[in-house]
UniProtKB/TrEMBL annotation:
Occurrences of domain STAS (ranges): 144-256
Gene3D superfamilies named among the record's database cross-references: 3.30.450.40, STAS domain
Pfam families referenced in this protein's UniProt entry, alphabetically: GAF, STAS
Organism in which the protein naturally occurs: Salipaludibacillus neizhouensis
UniProt name for this protein: Anti-anti-sigma factor
Superkingdom assignment: Bacteria
Lineage: Bacteria, Bacillati, Bacillota, Bacilli, Bacillales
Signal peptide as annotated in the record: none
């Protein structure tokens, strides 16, 4: 698709960025001849063209020459990349939320028409549906609830991937049913595979720990990464949970009176 865009608009480079908390990162790119934009390239939000695209009422920005345009000539990225012709449009998901941008650029000056802008916007509309399908596929890959029995009364819940609303209901139902049917006394909840989106800790984990407590099942949380700990350091809801947090599964087993021994 990117190659077709580059051919249609007669440009060297086409790429998609994703909007992060403080920077825009290139997710995918096509460079017809010279490699101008590599995948993974990231620029702080205040010093990139994407901010100008997203802030524009038309959800688009184009310029014949970035080094002469009043809005872009002073940006550090302009001198670093050394490109001139540029056209970019806002890329949104199907709910209208800004995902990132779809952009094209070239070393030479380019005069983009209104038809060019409409064309790129139409491609962005197609990409928005592809993004939703990719997200759905990614989430479906984690729909299972991996519960690992260790010994009588003790099991590990390995929380993996993104927890959306569908998975939240599934996890709560499966874990509580499993706890009751198997007479579980201790659940070790391993968060090492958890993917947190937009800094939002899944509320189902709070509800699940509290529900298990009501059932008389104690919990121990493990697999907390440094970045996760830093993010949730002021989370009072997490601090008030009646659970313990340890560094790894071995420590969790030790906490409830079990040890791993080699044969």
């Amino acid at each position: 698709m990117f190659e077709l865009i580059s051919e249609k608009l007669n440009v060297n480079t086409t790429y998609v960025t994703k909007r992060g908390e403080s920077a825009m990162t290139v997710l995918s790119s096509f460079n017809k001849e010279e490699k101008i934009i590599p995948e993974g390239y990231s620029v702080e939000y205040g010093d990139n063209y994407c901010r100008l695209i997203i802030m524009n009422e038309e959800d688009a920005m184009c310029t014949e020459n970035l080094s002469k345009d009043a809005l872009t000539k002073e940006l550090e990225v302009t001198s670093l990349l050394g490109v001139k012709g540029f056209l970019g449009v806002t890329l949104k998901d199907t709910n209208g939320n800004v995902f990132g941008t779809l952009c094209v650029m070239d070393r030479e000056e380019k005069q983009f028409t209104e038809d060019d802008k409409k064309y790129l916007k139409s491609i962005a509309g197609v990409l928005s549906h592809i993004i939703e399908l990719d997200r759905a596929k990614y989430n479906l890959g984690f729909l299972s609830v991996p519960i690992i029995p260790i010994t009588k009364g003790v099991s590990i819940l390995s929380v993996q991937g993104v927890i959306d609303e569908v998975r939240s209901k599934l996890i709560m139902q499966e874990v509580l049913n499993y706890g009751a049917e198997n007479q579980i006394e201790h659940f070790i909840i391993d968060l090492s595979g958890l993917v947190i989106l937009e800094n939002a800790f899944p509320s189902v984990l709070f509800d699940m720990v509290q529900a298990l407590e009501i059932m008389g099942i104690s919990t121990v949380i493990t697999g907390v990464s440094p970045s996760f700990a830093k993010q949730e350091v002021n989370n009072t809801q997490l601090k008030n949970l009646n659970t313990k947090t340890v560094k790894n599964i071995e420590s969790a087993l030790d906490n409830i009176g079990f040890k791993l021994t080699a044969k």
